[in-house]
Amino acid sequence: MHKTEQGLSLSPSEGFVETPAIQKIVDRSLLYLQAGLPVHLTGPTGTGKSTLAMHLASILDRPVMLTFGDEEFATPDLIGDRIGYHRRKLIDNFIHSVLKTEEEVSERWVDNRLTTACREGLTFIYDEFNRSRPEANNALLSVLEEGVLTLPTSEEEDGYIEVHPNFRAIFTSNPDEYAGVHKTQDSLLDRMVTIHLDYFDEETERAIVVARTGIAYEDAVKIIKLLRDCRKLPEFHHVLSIRPAITIGKILNQGDFQRDKENPLLVDVCLDTLVSPRHDGNHQGKMKESVIGLIQKHF
Questions:
Q1: Which of 26, 28, 245, 290 is the most buried if burial means most Cβ atoms within 10 Å?
Q2: Domain 2-74+114-196 belongs to what topology?
Q3: What confidence score (pLDDT) does residue 49 get?
Q4: What is the spatial distance between Cα 150 and Cα 115, in angstroms, rounded to a whole number?
């Protein structure tokens, strides 16, 4: 990934895992994007939404404009705003005895990322867009439906710009029940094709751990079995993404790390990454006992 005058230029990620399950999602998403339809990837944290969005953008092979949802966002953070003033002064002294002065002061308009993407035909990635308040995203409604972006009337003669035919949009979001997110207005969701992502199958999760950590396949098998069994425990009320498995894999792949259940450091690493700090001491104690039992089973 590197920056260009228009936006970011993405290359296909060398570590991107393409199992049949992932390829199926990629193919569907590209089908919609190539037809000019916006794609919305939604699902729990750790299901690869952002990574997949970047991968799709790299295949489209257009400069990328990337932005992240934020609670403090307002419409100008997407389309632009008037920032400062432009001053023009003309002094006419052609006739020495007559001094004529004309001065013009106008507000200076600066495009923001959505406007730039619409003008230039870039791929617009709006990561976790539902962390922004719904009213901040209203500018997207006409972009995705009518292919026009409405601007303050003083900035464009007709008050809008036509969206470039190469413009493509990819959105990601967490489910509504996640902390820090807002419920998206139905009118915006209706303009997107939503693809629901969940935790991948066991084969894909193993492949991701191997690709992200360099660990041996047989060790990745043990880690993923541990992770997937932890998800089934009644004590685990929180979401358990693949990230703990990647962390464990990176640690196990360091030097001569003893990779069996007799190593107390292995037990500590698994507990550190798998047991949530959000629960009280009694609940954490039960979770730790259950995880230790699974470590004994799989390692």
A1: 245
A2: Rossmann fold (3.40.50)
A3: 92
A4: 9
